[in-house]
Design a protein that fits this description.
This protein has 459 residues and is α/β, with parallel strands linked by helices. The protein is built from 13 helices and 15 strands. Helix 4 runs parallel beside helix 10 and helix 11 (343-364) runs parallel beside helix 13 (430-450). It is globular and about 60 Å long. Bound molecules: pyridoxal-5'-phosphate.
């Protein structure tokens, strides 16, 4: 083990980090998020090391991508074992066949929700899984329209996915016209329900609004190809919908012949305490989007559909790099590790411990407005005060920075940019969780005591 605890010896960004950041600013697209000035050099398990020798405990896991942490030994061994031959060859399955592609698709079809026959289109990113799902839904239903939710992120690197997107106007501004035919409805967000004080039945209200208003006024249901939904909003602020909402959505889809597309790019592969978040509500997606952790740290995504839906003709949807063999073997090993090391169960257990501790912080600090989540997908909504509920935008940024300087890596987003989204690797131990919670609590206590002030530039 290279690391056992966080250790910050040079206030980040240290001199070496600053040098790289300066070069980066000249040549790398400034469109990327970058919550913190962290210049990486190495990592192992739940820890990352920067170029100045600081070691951080990672409560972000590359935005819920590194479910196995960094360089899981079994994944590395499997990749090494593949490196001796036939590594640099692309366009399988675009042009030809290979057994590992079949093996990965068989595995995915077996473990994903729904007992029906499925087919899989492999990809490289969540956004391309969204593009695939949109094309497939239109092709199968011969309908033009889509419903998506405010607060959602289905990817931003294609105009199709971006047209479904709905959690931050800063991401949308300047890119219109987007694809026509997408109608957005509110995601049921109990803590911040825009339509009244009582949010107890906000899930049902959304379903009624969709059926009785949207389907009568602007979107004929017989023209809707698919409804896209995240079972738990990720980037939109870790919003867990009330029970009954997702089941109700599935029923509406069935009634109108609309396909239900469930986006598990962030919630999939054990993150929420079961292999897929759909399992919590017994959802049976017509189309399922997967990505982020699927490749065990290599870029691999998938669009999974009922076989009768994914029956499109030869040549109608192909991508040169999709299904590359190194990604397939890495994904196969990563899934095996998730199953054999029971990482979903660990997420449930350690996540439960973290939620309990965070709820105690909510009760102790006025700036902690809400704590929610499932497994190791946890949202901590920071406010200026519990009474006003005003989003604590500077407060969250300050607490994130203070924690960073003590060796804990976190990130925040949400509709108002004020929600810590805690997504540690699923290998996190209870001891590591405790260490991280201690650092986070110290940061929150400081902001509570001293206020956020003007958040200083960290660059
Ligand atoms: C739920 C969800 N879907 C899709 C995406 C897009 O994934 P990618 O960045 O790989 O395109 C994201 C990314 O954050 C996501 O959280």
């Amino acid at each position: 083990m290279k690391y056992s605890t966080p250790k910050v010896s040079v206030t980040p960004p240290g001199p070496k980090a600053r040098e790289v950041i300066l070069r980066d600013e000249r040549v790398v697209s400034p469109s990327n998020w970058r919550y913190l000035p962290l210049v990486l050099k190495d990592g192992e398990g739940a820890f990352l090391e920067d170029v100045d020798g600081n070691v951080f405990l990672d409560f972000n896991a590359a935005a819920a991508t590194q479910n196995l942490g960094v360089d899981h030994p079994r994944v590395i061994e499997r990749i090494r074992g593949w490196l001796d031959n036939f590594v640099t060859y692309l366009d399988i399955p675009g042009l030809f066949y290979h057994e590992v592609v079949v093996e990965l698709c068989e595995k995915i079809a077996t473990i994903t929700p729904g007992k029906y026959e499925k087919r899989v289109f492999l990809g490289l990113s969540g956004a391309d899984a969204a593009e695939t799902a949109m094309k497939l839904a239109r092709w199968y239903t011969r309908r033009p329209r889509f419903i998506a939710f405010t607060g959602s992120n289905y990817g931003v690197t294609g105009i199709g996915a971006l047209s479904l997107f709905g959690f931050n106007i800063g991401v949308l501004r300047g890119f219109s016209p987007l694809m026509p035919g997408v109608t957005h409805v509110p995601y049921p967000y109990p803590y911040r329900w825009p339509f009244g004080e009582d949010s107890s039945d906000c899930g049902m209200q959304v379903l009624e609004y969709l059926e009785k208003h949207i389907f009568r006024t602007v979107a004929p249901p017989d023209e809707v190809a698919a409804i896209f939904v995240e079972p738990i909003l990720g980037d939109g602020g870790v919003v867990v919908p009330p029970d009954g909402f997702l089941e109700g959505l599935q029923a509406i889809c069935l009634k109108h012949g609309i396909l239900l597309v469930v986006d598990e790019v962030q919630t999939g592969f054990g993150r929420t305490g079961s292999m897929f978040a759909s399992d919590h509500w017994k959802l049976e997606p017509d189309i399922l989007m997967l990505g982020k952790p699927m490749g065990g740290g290599l870029p691999v995504s998938a669009c999974v559909a009922r076989s009768e839906i994914m029956s499109w003709p030869r040549g109608s949807h192909v991508m040169t790099g999709a299904g590359y063999l190194l990604g397939c073997v890495s994904a196969l090993e990563a899934i095996k590790v998730m199953e054999e090391e029971k990482l979903a169960e660990n997420a449930q257990r350690v996540g439960g411990f973290m939620l309990k501790r965070l709820k105690a912080m909510r009760d102790a600090y006025d700036i902690v407005g809400d704590v929610r989540g499932k497994g190791l997908l946890i949202g901590v909504e920071i406010v200026r005060s519990k009474r006003s509920k005003e989003p604590g935008v500077n407060e969250v940024a300050k607490a994130c920075l203070l924690a960073f300087r003590k060796g804990l890596l976190t990130a925040y987003d949400g509709i108002h940019g004020n929600v810590f989204r805690l997504t540690p690797p699923l290998i996190l131990t209870e001891q590591q969780a405790r260490t991280g919670m201690d650092i986070l609590e110290e940061a929150l206590a400081t902001v509570q005591r001293e206020g956020a002030g003007e958040v200083e530039s960290v660059w």
